[in-house]
Automatic annotation (TrEMBL):
Species of provenance: Streptomyces lasiicapitis
Protein name (database record): Protease
Residues of the Peptidase S33 tripeptidyl aminopeptidase-like C-terminal domain: 416-518
InterPro entries (alphabetical): AB_hydrolase_1, AB_hydrolase_fold, Pept_S33_TAP-like_C, Serine_prot/Carboxylest_S33
DNA repair found in the keyword field: no
Length: 521
């Protein structure tokens, strides 16, 4: 639990411009066949040393660490692909051994950006049982995430009471202090975070696993990573599936608005479902239920619940749980009960359990190697911010932000009275940072690869179906679309039809017809 005080416009501006380490030039990725190729040879000839996963290192469930079919390892990649001698990174990996005749490895990315793939695969092992008959299923923590040199900004920035709108010196002082803290806490990896570099890492992993082609299953942000790989390494593309397709063209502000709108629609659908069922704590009127939800969040932000040890449970904690619970329609009954306990008895424990069960990874974990001793609690959010900012070339200056902060607050509030604030915050954090790469927006298009599968879900609260269509058109004739008419974020884990079609493609190369669909389940 955490306390998240309401932010004034000045405080939001101060926080928005916080964490401004000077980034290396990421405008163009290093050419795989360029002058650095010889220097990269040592990374492409390495072998991964697999061993039993260690519970005191990876902070994984005991049943995983004792599973003889599960092993952990790491791969070494250059910090800077343009200058491979500048330093190296160790990327954490987990492998579930194929249970049948192995045809290669299947690398999996669960999204984020900022999602830890080692912990993610440990939690989803049973979901890959069928496809695991033909593949070693491999999860990895991307650079800057989880056990792979995790970035941090030292926790949530604290509001500076002296940083008022008319006191530019106080705002700038806070920016400098936070920037120094972010740079200090993150270490050398921070300037080299971004999907362009993670895609290069993905190719090193492919080679280290002994695969001539990349077989890949990416969810949410993982689809952006997969799309970038198809553009950078078209001749190395094997069987690739992108589920919950991300945008390649919209900037961080537009993505934030889409996310706020999508989550609000999912919440409205949940409340409509709840009020049609007996015992719904919000009653029988969905409109009143929407007002009650906003009031609940506002009241808890103003007067947080306090535990015996002094921790606080705020309205933004409710928003955080909603943001994950609404990803899966199967979670709606449990969410209804947890909200009922909160409203009726002031008991947030059921909501907290939901948030913990649905989180990307354990809050803290030890690191197997390198200077970091544990994963910072803010790693997921710090990595999400760093990657999204690095992938976006748009970067208005501080003066423009100061002029537009009121407009942005109003626009996000109109998009979602519940999620607007939380979706605006990471958008603002990009302002003032060095410009990101334009490679994704300009060059990831019209790829010349074997056909690969894109899955879009009509009721997806995070990646709208139109992004699937737009990305498919942008990538060209190699992209085949599967239309999942259900709800929830991504389709593989929530739709048997989607799972069957994805597995059939990955295992047997049975590609659905472009535009075919799966009915809502």
């Amino acid at each position: 639990m955490r306390s998240t005080p309401a932010l004034t416009a000045a405080a939001v501006l101060a926080l928005a411009l916080a964490g401004l380490p000077v980034a290396a030039d990421q405008a163009a990725p290093a050419d795989p066949s360029g002058p650095a190729k010889a220097d990269l040879r040592r990374f492409y000839t390495q072998k991964i040393k697999w061993a039993a996963c260690k519970p005191d290192v990876q902070n994984l469930p005991e049943n995983i660490t004792k599973d003889k079919d599960v092993s952990c390892g790491k791969v070494t990649v250059p910090l800077d692909y343009a200058k491979p001698g500048r330093g190296t990174l160790g990327l954490a990996m987990m492998k579930i051994k194929a249970s049948g005749d192995k045809r290669g490895s299947l690398l999996v990315n669960f999204g984020g950006p900022g999602g830890a793939g080692v912990a993610g695969l440990a939690g989803a092992k049973k979901d890959f049982g069928y496809v695991g008959k033909g593949y070693d299923v491999v999860g990895f923590d991307p650079r800057g995430v989880g056990l792979s040199e995790p970035v941090s900004c030292g926790g949530e920035p604290e509001e500076d009471p002296e940083a008022a709108a008319d006191d530019a010196a106080a705002v700038l002082r806070q920016l400098r202090e936070t920037a120094a803290k972010c740079k200090k806490e993150s270490g050398p990896v921070l300037p080299y975070i971004g999907t362009v570099n993670v895609s290069r890492d993905l190719d090193v992993m492919r080679q280290a696993l002994g695969d001539k082609k990349l077989n890949y299953l990416g969810f949410s942000y993982g689809t952006r990573l997969g799309a970038v790989y198809t553009a950078q390494f078209p001749k190395k593309v094997g069987r690739v599936v992108l589920d919950g397709v991300d945008t390649l063209t919209e900037n961080v502000e537009e993505q934030g608005l889409v996310g706020a709108e999508g989550r609000q629609t999912a919440l409205d659908n949940f409340l409509l479902w709840c009020t049609k069922n007996a015992g719904c704590v919000f009653g029988e009127d969905s409109r009143n239920a929407r007002h009650a939800m906003v009031k609940l969040i506002d009241d808890l932000d103003a007067y947080p619940l306090k535990s015996m040890d002094g921790q606080e449970f705020t309205g933004q904690d409710v928003v955080s749980v909603l943001g994950t619970a609404l990803y899966s329609r199967q979670a709606w009954p449990a969410l209804s009960q947890a909200l009922g306990a909160l409203l009726a008895d002031g008991d947030p424990r059921a909501l907290l359990r939901m948030g913990g069960a649905m989180g990307d990874a354990p809050g803290r974990a030890r690191v197997a190697a390198g200077g970091r001793t544990e994963v910072p609690e803010d790693n997921s959010s710090a990595a999400l911010m760093a990657v999204n900012c690095a992938d976006d070339p748009d970067r208005p200056g501080a003066k423009r932000v100061e002029k537009e902060i009121s407009r942005l607050e109003t626009e996000f509030e109109e998009a979602s009275p519940v999620f607007g604030r939380s979706m605006l915050f990471p958008v603002l954090l990009c302002f003032g940072r060095p410009a990101g790469t334009d490679y994704i927006r300009d060059d990831v298009r019209d790829v010349d690869t074997p056909k690969f599968l894109l899955v879009g879900t009509r009721g997806d609260p995070a990646t709208p179906y139109r992004w699937t269509v737009e990305t498919a058109e942008r990538l060209g004739s190699s992209a085949v679309v599967l239309d999942n008419k259900g709800d929830g974020h991504t389709g593989y884990f929530g739709s048997k039809c989607v799972k069957d079609k994805v597995d059939a493609f990955l295992l047997y190369k049975e590609m659905p017809k472009n535009g075919s669909s799966c009915a809502a389940e």
